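Project standup — Tuesday

K.O.: blocked on the structure for the chain from last sprint. Re-posting the sequence here as requested.
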Amino acid sequence: MKNSLLVFGTKNFNNSLNEIKEYLNFSLIFFHNEISFNNTVPSIDGLLIDSVICNDTNYLSLINSVNNKPIFLIGRSEVTKKCNYTDKIILPLILSDFNTKIMSLLTTVTFNKNSSVKIKQYTIDKNEKKLKSNNLSITVTEREIQLIELLFNEKKSLSKNNLLKKIWKYSENVDTHTVETHIYRLRKKIFVKFNDDSFIVNSKAGYTI
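H.V.: unblocked you, prediction finished:
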């Protein structure tokens, strides 16, 4: 399935893109004033912006309100930073380079988004294997990342047996202290670095974040 980009531009800009859209490696959806744009719509992967319309305060306000989609600002060499954007594309540009540039940027943004997870006041950086908060960080293992994500995503307490099955793939009757050991070590690291002793909570029902 192709990536879809929403286009904000002048009539000439839109017409030019419309003429070449069948040769692009991504789909284009042209913005019209009657479109009610919700920047959380999953079918929209990013925005293509004609730099000229950044002089329009109405467009500028709408564009700058988008904070969870990559924005590609397209213009001549005199383009200036009036819009919030992820990257800019300087024209003229040959079609193959245009395709490569957009797809490369989309891939990078998607990769970075998937590798960073916000949990409470912390961020997990899966690439660096770090748990971060307020310029502080600790190193976490792959298993600890899996454990944190599972407990956070479930939104409910998970028993020791559930954790063994989902993360370690153990059967329910295995007698092991694996879960307790991992959680103890993780809690200790978090407390020492962040002075937080309530990141992982346990009760009779099990563990939760």
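K.O.: great, moving the ticket to review. The chain has two domains: 4-114, 116-208. The domain at 4-114 is CATH 3.40.50.2300 (Rossmann fold).
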